[in-house]
Amino acid sequence: MGNSFIVLGTDTGVGKTVVCAGLLLAFRAIGLEAGVQKWVSTGDRFGFSEDVEFCLRAARLEKDFFPLIRSEHLNPYSFVYPASPHYASKLAGVSIDSARIKRLYQEYKDLMDLLIVEGVGGTLVPLREDLLLLDLVEQLKLPVVLVVKNVLGAINHTLLSIEAIRQRSIPIIGLLYNDAFGCNQDIKADNIKIIGKLSNLPTIGRMPYMSSVRDYLSVFKSVARVLLKKIKR
Questions:
Q1: How far apart are CA 13 and CA 160, in angstroms?
Q2: Distance CA 2, CA 13 (A)
Q3: Considering 46, 82, 111, 233, which has the largest number of Cβ atoms within 10 A of its Cβ?
Q4: What is the reported pTM?
């Protein structure tokens, strides 16, 4: 599977950024030169992805943490309006160039031991009116870690996301459940059981509410080790 993967979500606001931050911190803590990239980001006030900024802060890194890495490598496209990339870019008068994303992805990946790519929104988000996020993931042959918001409704959202990913023959490494949202514990446990049974996909971790960087490291070290074993197959 190479030295990169993408973190996708079953919806927007499911915790992809926290997952990327925790994994970046954990991979670097075990000695890997790991980086994070977000191809398109929206709802940014200062022309750079606030999600990437969050990840870098969690891992105690600056934008220039690696001499050959530029801001555009970290975040090729950033838009102010908080909407789907196809609409936010249209309002900004910018056409998202998939060739540019591919070039910056490849350049960045070649410099890292491991590159974590964060998706945008849910799974079938349009980057342009003629290009879905999953189309680009398919073209780059990136395996997926799927973040699941573990609440009532997760079964439907997760299975639909898995079906869309599998229709493109994109490998799914596993499912990471975000338990930080309020929901009956029995429902959360049953979500994991039935989704695993119906999808035949492994659970690679469960994420509780976390309030500090120390929490991230303790939770994600074990997830990082599981991912390394799967990626190196």
A1: 17
A2: 28
A3: 111
A4: 0.95
